[in-house]
Write a structure and sequence with these properties.
Elements (H helix, E strand, L loop, with lengths): L9 E7 L6 H9 L6 E8 L5 H7 L5 E7 L3 H11 L5 E5 L3 E3 L3 H11 L3 E8 L9 H15 L5 E4 L10 E5 H7 L10 H11 L3 E12 L5 H21 L1 H6 L11 H5 L4 H9 L7 H18 L7
Parallel strand pairs: 1-2, 1-4, 2-3, 6-9
Antiparallel strand pairs: 4-8, 5-9, 6-8, 7-9
Helix pairs in contact: 8-12, 11-12
Length: about 300
């Protein structure tokens, strides 16, 4: 039997870096929630795009705090928001997410039942409405494939299938403080490290994909390759920083072997440019998406070069 605890307020924490053109969409989706006992904390992380001015002119019908700081990264921004939170349930949402109207209510219900739960909600790209380029449709396709691997309802995870996305997650403030927050030394994979540390300290980590948000991440192929390279660098850094990660990480990025000559064929930047220019759209969808995967894998895992502009 799980021990129940009364939750009275949710603090929705949104880190944003140069997100002036995104964050208002996220805030409008939060304003449409059926659950109304919440505050919103937006942490502007060293932005220079007028985010503060846009937010200051925004007049929602819910309580909102706008915090500015020098750039500390996602981990530092989320920790700052948590430290200022008045609610006893924290819901972390990135500035490119759109929550469905029952999202906060569904998070709240799970935490009314479970103690020490860290919960990821679902996130998928809305490829039928907002995506424009062929690559955006492909990225949305990847997110939906990942999303569909989980069953409906709450699924508790262990080290063998561990997953956590701080782009859409919830945790009681007392649990967050007990675990020490996100590791600010990490610029990526900070959510996975947090989940691994949480399991080691006796907390639960779960996902409920039916608590749905749409991910409006309109990346180019070049941007996605750069993001993958950041992720792999974070993997190496985490291996250096975390004994727990080294002890439990059972796979490494393949970078040698018989596949390397094959991937070298797709390691030239022109492939990325062709994807973003739509020059491969003459290919059937299945073949085209397979080729996109090969190009991304080649230019990130096998032949990670300089940042692609």
């Amino acid at each position: 039997m799980e021990r129940r605890s009364k939750l009275t307020k949710i603090s929705v924490i949104i880190p944003t870096f140069n997100g002036a053109n995104r964050v208002l969409t996220t805030l409008k989706s939060i304003g449409s929630q059926g659950y109304k006992a919440f505050e919103v904390i937006v942490v502007i992380d060293g932005s220079n795009d007028g985010t503060f001015e846009r937010l200051n002119a925004y007049d929602p019908d819910f309580k909102i705090k706008i915090l500015e700081q020098n750039n500390r990264g996602r981990a530092g921004s989320r920790n700052r928001g948590a430290s200022e939170a008045e609610g006893n349930l924290l819901v972390f949402v990135d500035d490119d997410m759109r929550l469905t109207s029952d999202c906060l209510s569904a998070h709240h219900k799970h935490h009314e039942v479970f103690e020490d739960l860290i919960l990821s909600g679902g996130q998928i790209g809305d490829d039928t409405k907002n995506t424009v380029s062929d690559f955006q449709k492909f990225k949305s396709h990847l997110e939906r494939q990942w999303h569909d691997r989980f069953p409906d309802g709450l699924m508790l995870l262990d080290e063998d299938n561990l997953y956590l996305t701080a782009a859409h997650m919830s945790i009681k403030k007392t649990t967050f403080e007990r675990l020490g927050g996100f590791d600010e030394r990490l610029t990526d994979k900070e959510d996975f490290e947090f989940a691994l540390r949480a399991l080691n300290l006796g907390a639960r980590v779960g996902i409920d994909k039916t608590i749905l948000a749409y991910h409006d991440d309109f990346q180019t192929c070049a941007g996605y390759v750069n993001r993958r390279r950041q992720y792999l660098r974070a993997h190496e850094k985490l291996l250096d920083l975390s004994v727990l990660y080294r002890a439990t990480h059972r796979h490494s990025i393949e970078n040698e072997g018989v596949k390397r000559p094959f991937y070298s064929l797709f390691s030239f930047r022109v492939w990325v440019r062709w994807v973003d220019e739509g020059r491969l759209r003459f290919l059937p969808v299945r073949v085209r998406y397979w080729l996109y995967r090969i190009i991304i894998w080649s230019q990130s895992s096998y032949f990670p070069g300089k940042k692609i502009d």
